[in-house]
Amino acid sequence: MKSNNPTLKSIASKLGLSVSTVSRVLNGKSSRYRISKETEELILKATKDLNYMPNQLARGLRLKRTNTIGYVIPDISNPFFASIAKSVEKSARKLGYSILLCDSEENTEIERTSLQLMLNRKVDGLIISPVGLEVSHLKTIVQTNIPMVLLDRYFPDLNIPFVTSDNYQGALDAVNLLIENGHTTIACIQGLRNTSPNNDRVKGYRDAHIRHELFIDESLIVGDSFGEENGYIETKLLLRKKIIPTAIFSVSNLISLGAIRAISEEGLKIPNDISMISFDDQPYSRFLATPMTTVAQQNSQIGQIATKLLIDQIESNRRIEPRGIFLPTRIIVRDSIKRIFKLDLKALG
What we know:
single chain; alpha/beta; 434 Repressor (Amino-terminal Domain); Rossmann fold; 3 domains; 6-stranded parallel β-sheet; 6-stranded mixed β-sheet
């Protein structure tokens, strides 16, 4: 079964099927048109044996599409966003789309310029992980009716579907774990203020204290960036306070890396001298000198769902209901939390 230039028509003729049936299977619409599993497998095997390659350019011209999705990411150096970008690209490729990726560098103006570039390139839709501080340019894009999905960061009052983690519950679980291990003086090193993930995580930190009837020391809620430098500087300052916290809740993986360095430079050890839990599990988390207890997010699934939501809009030419999807998190317990007893607390005081 070899052919130099197989077409949908030649494949359909060889299998004794209609061109529309072959086309629907190759476009992932078997279930929508109730095409049997046997027929689907027959078509897919034939296209593989014939080395059939769809002419995406011709298809795009026919449907007035570019088969390109724009994805604006706030920080490609952040392992969390890098892993999601990989998931988005892989999911899009499987569905016949390529990705135009731009890094906004946590800068709203770069984000605005990147989005305009993508619109000029006639992308079919947009996935945006916004900086999260300004929405006027997003409101303008909404009015163009281009399919769009927000990823990770979102705006509750903006009518754009989004996919994110349940950041509030993840933070609540993390701080509850610290409290259950006897910690009552817990610092929170936060990320970029007024962004939805940061706000939800800080709220979880606060509510864990409230549920356990613990005093919330506002001076222990510090920081203003998701990066390593923020974690390093704020930890240095925390370790110079009159009353040093017994534990740190880091709202991002990069913050925790900076904090670890600061703790080491002060001659302290995790968890013997100070405990830590970090939001967002990464492959390196278990290989640190002290394996880190983390709040794991479903990075791959976040990317897959966001991509499918967007392509469903593009393919159906219909906007979906602007609702949010919150994926659950889970705690991965390793070695970075020490159980504190009353005797230990007296010694620290």
